[in-house]
Amino acid sequence: MTAVLERPAPVRPTGPTARARRLARRVAGPWTYAALVAVLAGSAFPVYWSFVVSSQTPDAIDTVPPVLVPGGNLFANIARVFDTTDFWLALMNSMVVSGTVTLSVVLFSTLAGFAFAKLKFRGRNLLLLLIIGTQAIPTELGIIPLYMMMAEFGWAGEIHAVIVPGLVTAFGVFFMRQYFERAIPDELLEAGRMDGCHSLRLFWHIALPAARPAAAVLGLFTFMQAWNDFFWPLVVLTPENPTVQTALSTLASGYTTDYTLVLTAATIGTVPVLAVFLLFGRQIVGGIMSGAVKG
Amino acid sequence: MAVIDKTTRRHRWDTRFAPYGYVAPYFLIFGVFGLFPLLYTVWVSLQQRNLIDADAARFVWFANYAQLLADPYFWNAMGNTLSLWLLTTVPQILLALWIAQLLNRKVRTRTLFRMGVILPNITSVAAVTIIFAQLFGRDFGLINWSLGLFGAGQIDWQAGTASSHIAIAVMVVWRWSGYHALIFLASMQAIPSSLYEAATLDGANGRQQFWRITVPLLRPQIIFSTIIATTGNMRLLAEPLLFNPGAAAATGGSDRQFQTAALYLYEQGFTKYEFGYSSAIAVVLAIATVIVAGLGYFVTKRIRTE
Amino acid sequence: MRPKALALGCAALAAAVVLSGCGSGTASGGKTKLTIGLFGNFGYAELFKEYMAAHPDVEISDRTASYSDHHKNLAAHLATSSGNADIEAVDTGYINQFKATPDKFVDFNTKGGEQLKDRWLPWKWEGSLSKDGKQIGYGTDVGGLAICYRRDLLQNAGLPADRDQVAALWPTWKDFMAAGKKFQEKAPEGVKWFDGGPSVLNAIVGQTPVGYYDKSDKIIVGENKDIKDGWDLVVDGVNSGLSSKLLYSTPVWNTGFKQGQFATVTCPAWQMAKIKDQAGPEAAGKWDVTSVPGGGGNWGGSYLTVPKSGKNIDKAVELAAWLTAPEQQAKVFKSAGLLPSTPKLYEDPAIVDYKNPYFNDAPIGKLFTDAAKKLNPQYQGPKAGDIQTAIGSAMQRVEQGKQNGEESWNQFVADVQK
Q: Where are the transmembrane segments (chain A) (predicted)?
């Protein structure tokens, strides 16, 4: 798929049209690179700095002038994190929560997004409006009744309580719907229908393959969102059975506020998403592009 | 004939009912764990209800709302929310457009840059706020130290209204600009270059082309991003909560100078346990969010091709 | 095909549910697992080991959160009867709020608590006694007051460093501020007399006979002249540049210890453990402890409660009783500095003669048992903890230059009376 995305190698024709073309998709000059490097540095700096602190002794965090290069204490600090809290449990919990939520959101969003974009049914627009509308409502709004419900089910403190409300998202459905709208020509589906294809077949053979790039993007963002979710887990879980984020906040609000420890934990907690990101980032970026190109 | 009949029937069943099957899982789960709590919130908001003493709950009609509208701290929180909404959403969209435009050029190692800009988005709010709170520290923060190199005095970022809003906005903008940039970039690449070629022949420079061709054609994405950003930024909670750790964290500063509406909801609901009052805040905040998102929608909708 | 895909999704869901389904209550090997929810340092780590060694069938795990998070979560968990630890610590500032719903807790009087009553200071016992006579908590420590100070900083500023002479500097809080002004004249750049207005004010409030409430649970802080005088005194100190403007129990305050940004800090007994942890071993011997201006007073101190929703109530009650017994409180005093709430120990030579090496061998045993004997118990109302937080924010407004003393005081009084 990425091969399709590669633009043809730049040729250097002459004449006014060629000049115009060059202007339109300008080749980056030194200023562009300088700006991009600055953006990159700005993006990476806080994460880098957190890594620097986690590789230093606790004194480094409030030294003037600030310490900006990594030290040799990373592993000692990591060991301290695992000694201080059950960080394995936190990592494991976050993994289970994010994995399950991602799988479920992608599946259900693709199904519903396909139906909303490409199938006609009574009440479609109304239901879609409902989904768009619910996106505007802060999830914090329902947190009090949700907490009461979880307590009623006996799920308070258990990670099911974090998983279940995250199984579907309005954003996912909306996102996939937008994608399907543009990615699949109606004629293709019509042709399929003429051949007597059941809509499920259309979904499976036409929509799903076409949705892969978008599903991958949705999957990545859902995973990250689930991994980084803070407020609801903080309310419903106890420090005994935490996710990475609630473990972080426990560490940060614990009695000795040792920030080296907190930032080391933050660094460890970022590694799994960073790994997913580095492995699939290229496909994700490609997926976004291909969706737009086809549209 | 019978075979055709059966196929037709199946086909009709398929077109008529199958779509509901596809959207059913979403609505089932959302109904139970999304919609029901939302509606129940409205019910709770009509009660005088404290978590600690749930038995004493009683129905008070709109008393919570009346109290809310007369509550100066609520209006303070709404003001902060709107201020932070402006300070986060506008720079975020503009910065994203700028980054997308940079990335839209022929750049070597473009994957590196594209991935680089969404790096902030994969980090956790909790971790990032902890990091930024340290960077914005009064006595030993890196930012004050850097400003000190230019002769600026030490700023107590948490203390001032403007300074605290700026600090929080920096966190949000840092986190989300790259995400929106990629959304914009995707569509920029789809703009046929013939449009730019024609414009160039007409003598339009790069800046004019950007504002007259690129931005208008990105309108759907800008609307989308504005709405997403608005709904996110109207409910900022983790940033103001973790920016100022301590027993009074939920008040958002000594004089509530950076307490957002979501944080006020949290303060009332989860430090004072006033579930009824807190639910009323939630309902009003939701309405306000819809209004502001609508405002954003209409503003961005006015973007036109000239 | 759709059922297949769905089945796959469902299988993953089921797997997740199974994976996460770690039931609590019994640990592996048939042991009873007891959880204990704490905030700050109770000095219990060694005691847990000792108890588990003596009770092989019990496994104790503790979870520690910050002061405000802990009480906030406890309230939510109690209300929903879920997510509680088997034993939950409750601070003095919150005990009145929780004893208003005594049915959420085990009544220790029905579990033999009545017989243990004489262990504790009478006011400590009454502090956790509900209006209908149910005992919801066993007292841990009391927050007898002292002042911790940096010997080296005082000396460098031309003030005495010896603890008796230092104590002589400040018989009253007025003298304390006067000494501060003298200190500040010669203090190096960035070093202030005290850590922050809120912590000084808390100590002063802890010494007044009547606090934020009267005995009928009415908030009377607006009319309380003692507290207002204390407020004005601290505001004057802040305006004279004596404050580092760091709020206690925050990360920047912790850094302040490490960086030596202030010369004195009000020291309820439990504060000593914090100082030791935060200033670190390199500051050993630099800190010392002496008596507080204005006589005895109390700030903080806690109780152990057993929520009724727990699965192992009897074993939890047994552990709570053991942890708060005089013998254990004595150990905690020596290891973490927490002042016992059991008067028997105030005469115990092992306690009275105890000196703390970290604090330059300060005779903290004598110092704090004296403080405890002088202590006038002050009635704490239902939301004393919240009011303490509010008055801290009010003082911060003055420190940050957002309001003057009068404006901030008026706003505080209006806030808490809402």
A: 31-49, 87-114, 126-147, 153-175, 202-227, 259-280
Nearest neighbour of B159 by CB, restricted to C67, C251, C400: C400
Question: How far is A217 from chain B, CA to nearest CA, in Å?
Answer: 11
- Which of B29, B123, B173 is best to mutate for the A interface (most A CBs within 10 A)? B123
DSSP assignment of C2-42 equals HHHHHHHHHHHHHHHHHHH----SB-GGGPEEEEEEEES--
Query: Which residues on B lie below 8 Å from C249 (Cβ)?
Result: 246-247
* Cβ of residue A42 closer than 8 Å to a chain B Cβ: yes
Q: Cβ C68–B249 below 8 Å, yes or no?
A: yes
Considering only CB atoms, A160 lies closest to which of C17, C39, C81, namely C17
Q: Please state the ipTM of this predicted complex.
A: 0.84
Q: Which B positions 178-217 lie with beta carbon below 8 A of chain C?
A: none
What residues in A contact C77, CB-CB < 8 Å?
156, 238
pLDDT tens string A172-231: 998 899 888 877 888 888 887 777 777 788 888 888 888 887 888 888 878 888 998 888
Q: Does A167 touch chain B (CB under 8 A)?
A: yes
Fold of domain C143-299+356-416: D-Maltodextrin-Binding Protein; domain 2 (3.40.190)
How far is residue C26's CA from residue A83's CA, in Å, rounded to a whole number?
23
**Domain residue ranges of chain A, discontinuous segments joined by +:** 28-72, 85-294
DSSP state at residue A174: H
Sketch the domain layout of chain B as residue ranges.
72-301
Closest CA to C155 of C163, C143, C145, C146: C163
Superfamily, domain A85-294: MetI-like (1.10.3720.10)
> B300: which strand partners?
none
The subunits that touch chain C, with at least 3 C-beta pairs less than 8 Å apart, are A, B
Domains C16-142+301-347 and C143-299+356-416 equal at CATH topology level: yes
pTM of the predicted protein model: 0.86
Return the domain boundaries, chain C: 16-142+301-347, 143-299+356-416
List pLDDT tens digits, range B198-246. 888 888 888 888 888 899 999 888 988 898 888 889 889 889 988 887 7
Count B/C contacts: CB-CB distance under 8 Å: 74
- CA dist., res. C97 & res. C127, Å (int): 11
Of A8, A10, A9, give the one whose Cα is nearest residue A18: A10
Separation of CA B137 from chain center: 25
3.40.190.10, 1.10.599.10, 3.90.1150.10, 3.40.50.300: CATH of C16-142+301-347:
3.40.190.10
- Where helices occur in C101-162 by DSSP H, the ranges are 113-116, 122-127, 151-156
Q: How far is CA A48 from the centre of its chain?
A: 20
Task: Write the DSSP assignment of C222-272 as a string of letters.
Answer: GG-HHHHHHHHHHHHHHHTT-B----TTSHHHHHHHHHT-EEEEEEETTHH
CB A214 within 8 A of CB A175: yes
C75–B255 C-beta distance less than 8 A:
no
Burial class (CB in 10 A: 0-12, 13-18, 19+), A188: middle
Closest CA to C377 of C401, C410, C343: C343
Find out if CATH 1.10.1040.10 is the number for domain B72-301. no
> CB under 8 Å, gap of 24 or more: what pairs does A276-281 form?
A276/A220, A276/A223, A277/A220, A277/A224, A277/B115, A277/B118, A277/B119, A277/B122, A278/B115, A280/A216, A280/A220, A281/A220, A281/B111, A281/B114, A281/B115, A281/B118
| Interval C236-245: pLDDT, tens | 999 999 999 9
